[in-house]
Amino acid sequence: MEPVNFKHHGQLYFADGNIVLIARTAADERVAFRVHQSVMARNSPIFADMLSLPLSGAVESYDGVPFVRMPDPAEDLERLLQVLYIQPMLQIKRFDSDTPLIVKPLLILANKYEIQHLRANIIQKLEEDWPRTLSEWDEIEHYAEGKAKTCVQDVQWDRTCDDFPDLHLPEAASAINLSHACNVPNILPAAFYHLSRISILHDWDRTHVALEDNGIPDYSDLVNGARTARWNLLSKEDFICLLTGRERLKDAINVKVWTEHNAHVTHPHPNEDYGGCKSKYWSKVWDVVERACRESSDVLKTLRDVVDILQSSGNPALCYSCEHGIKKGIDEVRNEIWNGLHDYFDLPLRA
């Protein structure tokens, strides 16, 4: 059988290829990819098994070689073959808000055909955007704050800022959606925590494409570094995990800060004064910490800014030991919160 209504792919139709893969586009066109069995088999055990089957006389052929009708969308198969033939090292821009949307179809095929090196490459990039350690999280946060500061300065100097930080920072809802679809559990704790900081009113589509009644976009929040989410990509179960995590975070913070507040054992000089440092200052600072956390939607950031907390408490004349003890206690609370994200949001086990 020699079908004649196939459209040859411009780049991925090799004259010396020994098999043709046929796939449909969204517009219902049939695209022919002429490739090499050896290349496909080398990258995928599934393709190796599929293409090793003995050919019978009834096998369909096209352009003199056998062809296989593929169930995958032509657009997705094209991207996969481009990686295998043209761009072996997949280029993914770090912190791109669209990364999960871009790589999801490719990761689905990498999983389906067990192309392990491609799956590992994509997951590595995703985990760089959604880190597993608190120190890596802090690095990304400093980067985001720097982007926001630059944008604000541009506006202050009457320069247009339409390159909003939100466009160049990871977007959580699409990452969570991809995680479920492609089995990438390690990115979930950071993604859910980030999502817990965002107002439901800060919707990606509404914020980036909607206009005010006067036809001028309201970008004030974006200029100041506001983050948005593609809320429509979350499932009902995701929303339950999100709301559960928010409540558990509040409870955990109250318990952990209160524990540090009353940690008289770790207080360098409990119930006595030491030089200009009075023991009541210890409690005063922890009162400020507790109040700041209670009012915050981002406790990791609040606790990170220890200097601001000390200033808010009137810069009491703490001795070195007390100041060091408070900073150490705050670090311990931050680490406990970070390490507990998995449980707070009821997330699946990490890989």
TrEMBL record:
Name of the protein in question: BTB domain-containing protein
Source lineage: Eukaryota, Fungi, Dikarya, Basidiomycota, Agaricomycotina
Residue span, BTB domain: 17-85
InterPro entries: BTB/POZ_dom (IPR000210), SKP1/BTB/POZ_sf (IPR011333)
SMART domains, alphabetized: BTB
SUPFAM superfamilies named among the record's database cross-references: POZ domain
Gene3D superfamilies xref list: Potassium Channel Kv1.1, Chain A
CDD domains named among the record's database cross-references: BTB_POZ_ZBTB_KLHL-like
